[in-house]
Amino acid sequence: MEIERLLFENATRVSLFVVIALAYFLYRRYTRISVSHIPGPEPESFILGNLPELFQSQVGVPDFKWKQQFGDIVRIKGPFGEDRLFISDPKAMQYIFHTAGYGFLKWPERTEISRVLMGRGLLWADDAIHRRQRKVMLPGFGAPECKAFVPIFLKAASALVEQWNDLLASSMDQSVELNVASWLSRATMDSLGEAAFDYHFGALENKENELMKAYFGLMSDTLGQPSRQAIFTQTVMPVWYLRFMARCSNTRRMVHARHTAELANDIAQSLINMKSEALLYGKENKDILSLLVKANASENPASRLTDEEMLAQMRTLLLAGHETSSTSLVWCILELSRHPEVQSRLREEIRATERRLNGRQFTASDFDNMPYLAAVLKESMRFQPAVYQNYRMAAHDTVLPLSKPITTTTGETISSLPIGKGTKLVLSIAAYNRNKEVFGEDADVYNPDRWFRNSEKKGPTVGVYGNLLTFAGGVRTCIGWRFALYEMQSLLVEIINNFELGPTKELERLRREACLVMLPTLEGEEIKGENLPLRVSIAGRD
Ligand code: HEM
């Protein structure tokens, strides 16, 4: 009898909880400012709405389709009929990224993914915590600091060139098929190690390097092609449940993420200890971690990073600073292999500049004076942005300004859109970067020459580089954007100066894997991680 009474009491409590939760959910749904009158695609199901198409497709597929069908502001469905907005409108983007400051926060369930992969660092933080963390981090990423890293980047680039030359020397026909994605990932890991931590990872020399093995394939393995169940869990379940699963789940994905986190934590901790000791003995170093340790020591104690935050920043730099640069370069090199005329023109500019150097190394200002190099990079990062979407949520009721009026499903024409607190937004960097009003009628075509068109700036200011959103914008602009540009220029100049890159048959199976960054994988071999098979041969000299 006692057991029956307890069961009955528990069942009553659970039912009461469910009823209250449902009532609250419906109250929020129907009292919030509605965006249901904005045109958008039919949901696939009531439970998951349009989310399977959003998260399971290859990069850009839903973005370009919805943009073409419905324009720059699209209503999509989240779970259980919830309305969300899919945005690529330039004026709305400017408002969200810049004008509103911290008025749009990250989706809590997405920041949980950041926490698992990188800890409570910059990519996880929001609002006041983000502002405090960013202030301590900024001194390491100024223009002079990043320019001074160029010799380090060139060293990693030369090491890669040397290894490719060795492979070519032992090949039968002076050409080899290489997984360029794996090579670039290791090269950027080495240059990040030296510039950011004054530490030699040795990833280029040793493919079996423990940390590199853990990072390689991390994103595609943990985030690529999520099942419907994973989408449901990640979007519907509360954050405490996600946290619990991150700690206890024994799925392959979670085990990989936890193993990488432990490894990165150990390495980060020993590096921080080394730097703190060096600072104590008055040793000055110019790597980012040393600057960070120094900036943190001189901050007002209330504004300092905690030990846990310091570790998280290092893990953030390890992931955000290596995978993004190598991925951007990978897609750039793919475009160069598809457009041999662009590749040759770039090589001509590199060699003309090299002749003027009289045997000295390239410097940051040499790169700054190579207009075609800049055009190729801008165009590649416009056309193939490594980070293709951002996810934000309105922190309070607000009104989005629009670049051009839209017609609602009730036939009304509006030039601004009121949205309620908590409305979730998908900001499509990929679709914005192909906006025809901003980048020209041929925005869907790869063409570096667009950057020489003598036209005045079009569209509102949104991004730090070519007005692209590839590095995001406003208070959350990529902190490493200058670092990335000099690093990519160094690698690209060395590679194109020495080698010719061409497509292979394998590219027919190329996928644009959506896993926070856009990774190249091969159909049927996604689990093996990033792969861009290209034919590499020596670039002849006259
Ligand atoms: C071409 C290469 C890169 C691209 C395309 C890129 C892109 C981005 C984007 C889109 C964001 C905003 C993400 C968000 O708010 O959710 C971001 C943030 C960030 N990036 Fe990069 N990034 C690149 C290279 C780097 C490098 C080399 C570093 C460091 C060495 C770096 C460190 C960071 C950090 C720490 C943040 C967080 C900034 C904040 O929230 O305040 N990134 N990056």
* Beta-strand proportion: 5-15%
The spatial strand order of the largest sheet comes to: 1-2-8-5-3
Structural class: alpha+beta
Q: Give the low-confidence spans.
A: none
Radius of gyration (CA) equals: 24 Å
Mean pLDDT: 90
Cα-to-Cα separation, first versus last residue = 96 Å
- Biggest sheet: strands, sense, closure? 5 strands, mixed
DSSP strand tally: 12
Tell me, what's the shape? globular
Q: What small ligands are held by the chains?
A: protoporphyrin IX containing FE
Helix content: 40-55%
Total of helices? 23
Organism: Lentinula lateritia
Subcellular location: Membrane
Pathway: Secondary metabolite biosynthesis; terpenoid biosynthesis
Keywords: Heme, Iron, Membrane, Metal-binding, Monooxygenase, Oxidoreductase, Transmembrane, Transmembrane helix
Key structural traits:
three-stranded antiparallel sheet, five-stranded mixed sheet, globular, alpha+beta, 542 residues, single chain, binds protoporphyrin IX containing FE
Give structural notes.
This protein has 542 residues and is of the alpha+beta class. It is built from 23 helices and twelve strands. The strands form four sheets. A five-stranded mixed β-sheet has the order 1-2-8-5-3, with helices on both faces. Strands 4-12-9 form a three-stranded antiparallel β-sheet. Strands 6-7 form a two-stranded antiparallel ribbon. A hairpin with a 5-residue loop joins strand 6 and strand 7. Helix 5 (108-118) packs parallel to helix 13 and helix 14 (252-280) packs across helix 16 (307-320). The protein starts with a helix and ends with a strand. The structure holds protoporphyrin IX containing FE. The site of protoporphyrin IX containing FE (HEM) has 23 residues, from helix 16, helix 17 and helix 23. Protoporphyrin IX containing FE binds next to helix 16, helix 17 and helix 23.
